[in-house]
Prior knowledge:
Helices cover about 20% and strands about 15% of the residues. The protein is of the alpha+beta class. Strands 1-5-9-8 form a four-stranded mixed β-sheet. The protein has a four-stranded antiparallel β-sheet with strand order 3-4-6-7.
Amino acid sequence: MSSRRLITSSERSKLDPFVVATGDASPRDQRDLMERPFFSLAKAKRTRPIHYRAGDVCVEVYAVPEHGMATIWDADVLIWAASQIVEAENLGLKTSRFLRFTPYQLLTAVGRQTGARDYKLLKGALTRLQATVIRTSIRQGEHWRRHQFSWINEWEECARRDGRAEGMEFVLPDWFYRGVIDRSLVLTIDPAYFRLTGGIERWLYRVARKHAGRQPKGWLFDVTHLHEKSGSLAKPADFAFDLRRIAARQPLPGYRLSIERRERRELLRILPGKPFTAPVDGAVNHLGTSGVRTIGTSGVPVSGFRECKPQPTLWPETTNSRPNLESNLESNFCSGAERLADNADASAEPPTKHPSQPSLPLPGRKTGGKR
């Protein structure tokens, strides 16, 4: 009896390639990834899994010890992919989960350098994205409970004789791709996002963009609840201190932060503001506090304030688009049974089309956001 070898064909052989050739594309982010703990917020290797549950929303993230969990900086690859797919569809081009591109296109679009070290870091990011396993109940049908996938199904590089990467290909998971081609599940983000250096800063901007929009009162979060939503390994006290330092520096493009206190609860208010990417005449030397007289630091002195330099934008339109009023119930309450009145004054509005994501839009505003 002759032995037979089982050959597993690549998924790319079944998909038409989407060759990225649209040039610059306004950065877009996928809503489901913008507020829940899908990525490590630390640059150090993380192997401890993330387990997050709120109502019927479940997110579990597992890392391979050899490579560690995909980080929020690795997520730039997914933001770039979403941006290219949306831009191509807006131009009437056919897209696919199978992307073919040059590393130079990706690196320059997300504000990275293009040296040998940066190409090596890109390959490390792709490896972590493929090795990270996600299980979630978000966007599942009536008879399905969990969807398990990796951020990248497979990837390959085409290298020249000198070892420099000339072209790359990767295949996105169907769960992510469906969330990108759905117009209601994508939001534009400020290109200045890629210049944020801190993991919590990056995650906080995505939360702000998802919830605050241009609502006059912004959005109010319980700091303890934010810690749970972030999936951070930092202690709650250290996480709260980081938020105070971020509020003191005001680094988020297009948003202002302020710390408030109600009884024994510490709250973070996110308010829409002028985009920080527009050129200005001079540097800003004062600290904005959004009308709050003081910024509390629980007795810990702030280490220092950084001057905001003029930052030209890559795209002319950097203001936040229409208010994003479609927010999840689990994102808008304090720890405990009582929800914050600031975010709950329109709970009578009908839910969204996703059963697992009831919305809390504010009155007098239209839902949705610029794609």
